[in-house]
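Issue 218. Parser rejects a valid record. Input:
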Amino acid sequence: MTFVRELLSGKSPEVWSVGSRDMVYRALQLMAERNVGALPVVDSNGNVVGVFSERDYARKVILQGKSSQATAVDELMSHPVYCVTPSDTIETCMELMTDKHIRHLVVCEEDKMVGIVSIGDILKAIIDAQNMHIKDLENFIVGARS
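Output the parser choked on:
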């Protein structure tokens, strides 16, 4: 069983975010600079109020005739925010992502944002666990033959 804290340990400890009144263009610049597909959106008090992703941009800017340089992030972000804790399992994350049709979850601990996990992070953890299981089975089989 893999926990969210294990996913976070393999990622940068920095959590990049964007302000709710920042322009979409600024969010896209930050996402490109940091090579991430989504950013938590925070209000002026530092509370997480949404998530802005490449998917939000693709579906809500051009298709709605908006400009990324003249549209605030809070007009396009996905909300409500779905959060998990470091002690949640990746199975919990998968279930929530599937149920809510989302690709990113904010990780919170004691009402503080400590990270973000994506469906890609979850899939990588599952593949790594399966590969380890396969190696264990191969070693068992080889050991049983000796």
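Fixed in the parser; the record now loads. Residues 4-145 form a domain with the CBS-domain fold (CATH 3.10.580.10).
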